[in-house]
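Write out the 3D structure for:
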Amino acid sequence: MTYNLQGLVTGKIAIGLAALLARVLPPRLGYAAADFIADRIAALRTLPTVRAIRANQWVARGESLAGGDLDRAVRETLRNSARSIFDLYRFLQNPRAARRSIEMDPAARRLIRRPEFGERGLVVVSLHLGNFDLILHALSMEGVRPLILTIPDPQGGRRLEFDSRRKAGANILPMSFASLRQAVHHLEQGGFVATGIDRPVPDPQVRPLFFGRPAALPVHHIFLALKAKVPLTVLATVRRPDGKHYIHSSGLVEMDPHPDRETETLRNAEKVLRAAEGFIRRAPGQWSVSLPVWPEALELAPA
């Protein structure tokens, strides 16, 4: 039963329902429906998605929350996710509303308006924070087409989302050795490559520190930046109290070489993750990763 529910939460039915609600409901009612659904899911404490969010929130908030405080953090996270899905599909149908809703800091604006191919390539990394899909939406509205590296085999609702992005013109490549080589070549030509950095991976070769704990996070973005000798930047969205979505940029992060490859990877990955931590601390309840970033925290976080 648990895994059937897990499939329902992350699958085609959930995405299809969100798209339908975005077509028929005004924002006020849409948010109320999103909150109602999120609260019902948050109550399913044995669901793997809910357990993972609970453990992730516990670590990101200093490992100090328990009881009702941790329950409220989980509800806040799921409500943000549900509202973000509703907003994304609403904006896909109404680009003018999207333009009115998105604001960005000067560094993010310069990045989004840079030529598709510049003097140096650039790796753009993002987090599951705020309404992170809006970053791709903002790029599309400006006519920018980065090479987007994604998880290798998206299923269910994720596959629907990727298919939708492809139809909108996004250049999406599932992760593989061949796509990594293509991404390095794209960067060496002055292009830019976008990818995520906070979705955990199984059996990581290294575990960089993230919020003080070794995390099971990918480091492919560090490999790309080092191999192509290009900088990297972190983009993150945060939903403001007025309902607008603000895109922040870390500015350029240059890679530091080191003769030992593992040390080089870890040091640079942790430098990037420190920038990511700063964005998450601004709105921890808007950071939603549905897999355990620190697997051991599943047993450590208060039940």
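Residues 258 and 264 are 5 Å apart (CA to CA).
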